[in-house]
Design brief:
Pfam families (chain B): SBP_bac_11
GO molecular function (chain B): metal ion binding; molybdate ion binding; tungstate binding
Strand content of chain C: under 5%
Structural class of chain A: alpha/beta
CATH topology of one domain in chain A: Rossmann fold
Family (chain B): Belongs to the bacterial solute-binding protein ModA family.
Helix content of chain A: 25-40%
Number of helices of chain A: 7
Helix content of chain C: over 70%
Order of helices and strands of chain A: EEEHEEEEHHHEHEHEEH
Number of helices of chain C: 11
Low-confidence stretches of chain C: none
CATH superfamily of one domain in chain A: P-loop containing nucleotide triphosphate hydrolases
Distance between the termini of chain A: 39 Å
Structural class of chain C: mainly alpha
Keywords (chain B): Metal-binding, Molybdenum, Signal
Low-confidence stretches of chain A: none
Distance between the termini of chain C: 43 Å
Chains: A alpha/beta, B alpha/beta, C mainly alpha
Organism (chain B): Pseudodesulfovibrio aespoeensis (strain ATCC 700646 / DSM 10631 / Aspo-2) (Desulfovibrio aespoeensis)
Oligomer: heterotrimer
Shape of chain A: globular
CATH architecture of chain C: Orthogonal Bundle
Chain lengths: 220, 245, 218
């Protein structure tokens, strides 16, 4: 099912105005300078915030349309969101976390195997490493068979090796999941590696030439 | 600060006032407050030119303060036992009686008074009976004796609620929380008291209120003058007006 | 020595501690997470019992819980008994009096929760109510324990409000604090001392237990 987003929101320093769509089985990498509104965009798609105007639809179902007074809250959208830092529930062990919104326990175990955290099933989030927590967060997001996957800089806090590993996993799963995936990242290499499309957001607007401008900058 | 201000205000009003340069310091049992404050002290001050400072609290508290050397000149108690004890312990001069109170049966419900107090207590509509603490409050002791004399003390036990002071008993009865109460006759004359009906409890022995001048009094002559004043016909008239003898 | 007042105090403190989360948790939740006009008014109302002199609060409760008051009349219709001068009455008074002492620590621990956890719960499909019971409460045991300690200790010492609405009925509403006061008034200093001396180690023991429970949680 296709995600179509047309949203505006007044922010502190500028107005967010975005119009784009994402097809199932495709990863749309979202890049841009910090403070450009990328996280707000994710939050609007997730249903954690309301747009001022426009419409967000998914597979024909309207998720948000302020002019018609429609707003489907986050919990009813059936999507998954992975934040930059683990948001696992501290009082539950890893397995219970992963299985939190899942119905198929075999899928839970399979995912944990795939991401290499099966052996941590009984541990609590506080007892494992940051990389392991992020893997668990991914498993939790995927275990519930989401209709849409939103990723807000999911690998930023990880070491290079883990980052490469998880990147590869994600690319592998893309076809199998067959859902639209939005991946916000500040790592341009990652964006190009993962993204079937790369969308740059600058000052709340889609900036088609932003990526090109980055290439003209001296290499870090 | 805004939140604390009203609290501080009430605190200041409740704390016993400190002894400023008054000519006479009296420890007064609380039940006698209004007559003392509004009539007797102003009259005495006018007649003698002396200034009087009174502290109003329960007799028990005042007694406790006195045995711990609180600087009062005299104690005007709600009973005889505390002045007697001070005298026996050598802390005070011989006690004298300054007023007599009477226990009355009171209720907001006039139908109950009409039956007479003994019959009213049998009425099933009377679910809670307010009485002062029988151990520490003389009005409570007196009411208890009346109930015992009438042979119904045991029967009313389950329905009794105890006020710490006679004024709390009146509060229970006048708010309707208790259906009836054994209160001081003097309460009848108050605005709240007039809203209900009363029956004098003849079987209740009069509540004899005694006072004594303390041996350690800083102003014994002023105290003696006040004691004399309390026995005067002028004060006698005030007492009758307020429901005392 | 008569143990009844001490047992009654313990009973009152225990039931207050057991029931107060039911009242305090939703209020703390609304104050911590809610965003609505009049929130500061609600905050002030909840804090009021802490600031009002006990006698003022007690008198207000006496009127409301008395047979002619709103709560008292309803109670009599339901149960046929009187609300004032009953254990139920002093328990209700105790709950109201202790409310701010439970709401404050609970609210603080709710506010310390990472909002992303709550957002995560929402995205994963939990309703606000389910989030409260499955995510917020289990992660705020520290706040709950702190609230329990405060409330238990506070209830043991309660005097003014209980005095006003209780009627000091032996076995029903004559709690230890009132019994000690009466003993002092009646010059039974030995009794007063014995009761006071028992309250201290009992309170101490309870606080130690609750602190131990609190320490074991992460």
């Amino acid at each position: 099912m296709m995600l179509c987003a047309d949203m505006t929101k007044r922010l502190k320093h500028f107005d967010l105005e975005l119009r784009f769509s994402c097809a199932p089985g495709q990863i749309t990498a979202v890049v841009g300078p910090s403070g450009a509104g990328k996280t707000t965009m994710i939050r609007l798609l997730a249903g954690l915030e309301r747009p001022d105007s426009g419409a967000i639809t998914f597979g024909g179902q309207t998720w948000a349309d302020p002019d018609s007074g429609v707003f489907v809250p986050a919990r009813k959208r059936g999507l998954s969101l992975v934040f930059q830092e683990y948001t696992l529930f501290p009082h539950l062990n890893i397995r219970k976390n992963v299985a939190f919104a899942a119905t198929d326990m075999d899928r839970v175990d399979a995912l944990m195997d795939m991401f290499g955290i099966r052996h941590l099933a009984a541990s609590k989030p506080a007892a494992i490493s940051g990389g392991e927590r992020q893997r668990a967060a991914f498993c939790q997001a995927l275990a519930r068979e989401p209709v849409l996957l939103l990723l807000d800089e999911p690998f930023s806090a990880l070491d290079v090796a883990t980052r490469r590993n998880l990147r590869a996993r994600l690319k592998e799963l893309k076809g199998e999941l067959d859902i639209p995936i939005l991946h916000v990242t500040h790592d341009l290499e990652e964006a190009v590696f993962l993204g079937d499309t790369v969308m740059a957001v600058e000052n709340g607007q889609v900036a088609p030439d932003w990526l090109h401008r980055q290439c003209l900058l001296p290499q870090q | 600060m805004k939140r604390i201000a009203p609290f501080l205000l009430v605190l200041a009003l409740v704390l016993p006032s400190s002894a400023l340069a008054a000519d006479l310091l009296i420890a007064q049992a609380a039940n006698f407050t209004s007559i003392m404050q509004d009539e007797i002290i102003p009259a005495f001050e006018k007649a003698t030119g002396l200034t009087v400072q009174a502290t109003y609290a329960s007799t028990g508290k005042l007694y406790g303060q006195i045995v711990n050397d609180a600087p009062f000149d005299m104690l005007l108690a709600a009973d005889e036992s505390r002045p007697d004890k001070l005298y026996a312990d050598g802390l005070a001069q011989k006690p004298f009686v300054y007023a007599q109170g009477q226990v009355v049966f009171w209720s907001l419900d006039t139908k109950l008074c009409a039956q007479g107090w003994k019959a009213a207590l049998q009425d099933p509509a009377v679910k809670k009976i307010a009485i002062a603490n029988t151990e520490t409050a003389p009005y409570g002791t007196s009411a208890m004796k009346a109930l015992q004399a009438a042979g119904i003390w045991d029967a009313v036990q389950p329905r009794l609620v105890f006020g710490q002071s006679i004024s709390q008993v009146f509060q229970f009865a006048s708010s309707g929380a208790a259906d009836v109460g054994f209160i001081a006759y003097s309460s009848i004359f108050t605005e709240e008291g007039k809203k209900g009906c009363f029956v004098v409890v003849d079987e209740a022995p009069p509540v004899v209120q005694a006072g004594c001048i303390l041996k350690k009094a800083p102003n014994p002559e002023a105290a003696a003058r006040f004691a004399e004043f309390l026995a005067s016909p002028e004060v006698q008239a005030m007492k009758l007006k307020y429901g005392y003898k | 020595m008569d143990w009844t007042p001490l047992l009654l105090s313990a009973k009152l403190a225990f039931w207050t501690m057991a029931l107060i989360p039911v009242l305090a948790a939703p209020l703390a939740c609304v104050l911590a997470f809610g965003r609505f006009r009049g929130k500061s008014v609600l905050d002030a109302i909840v804090t009021l019992p802490m600031v009002l002199p006990p006698t003022v609060l007690g008198f207000g409760l006496l009127v409301v819980m008395g047979p002619r008051g709103l709560a008292g009349a309803a109670w009599e219709d339901l149960t046929g008994g009187r609300l004032v001068f009953s254990f139920a009455g002093i328990l209700i008074a105790s709950l109201i009096f202790n409310l701010p002492f439970a709401v404050q620590p609970l609210r603080a621990s709710f506010e310390k929760m990472d909002s992303r956890l709550l957002e995560s719960a929402a995205i994963l499909g939990l309703t606000p109510v389910a989030t409260f019971f499955r995510i917020i409460l289990p992660n705020c045991i520290g706040g709950l324990a702190a609230a329990s300690i405060l409330v238990f200790a506070h209830s043991l010492g309660e005097f003014g409000v209980i005095l006003m609405v209780g009627g000091s009925i032996p076995g029903k509403t004559q709690v230890a604090s009132i019994a000690i006061f009466e003993a002092v008034e009646a010059m039974r200093f030995n009794d007063a001392f014995l009761m006071s001396a028992t309250l201290v180690p009992v309170s101490f023991a309870v606080l130690m237990i609750i602190n131990k429970i609190n320490a074991r949680r992460p």
